[in-house]
Structure prediction request, 100 residues.
Amino acid sequence: MNHNYRKSISAEFPVRFLSIFIFVFFFVSTVFAIDNKKDLSGVWTVKLDSGDIGISQKWYLTTFSDQIHLPGTTDDAQMGIPDTLKPELKRPQVSFSFNP
Prediction:
């Protein structure tokens, strides 16, 4: 038997196996990613932290009284400082999305 032939096959096997594994991994993760969407719409309790003290005062252990309806914004809920900026695009914006 030709030993050079045997070496080339054994050298190609890990590369082929790894290529197939990567393809299957990304294919499966893409299929299951479609089902991972969570609907967050509804009523949520919220507290704005303009002073950046929520973590140090452990707000995450308390229940908030203010409510916001999602989908929505803090402007819609009349919370915080209203956004007074005029929406505009100074240059074209490009975004890419991959949805199989």
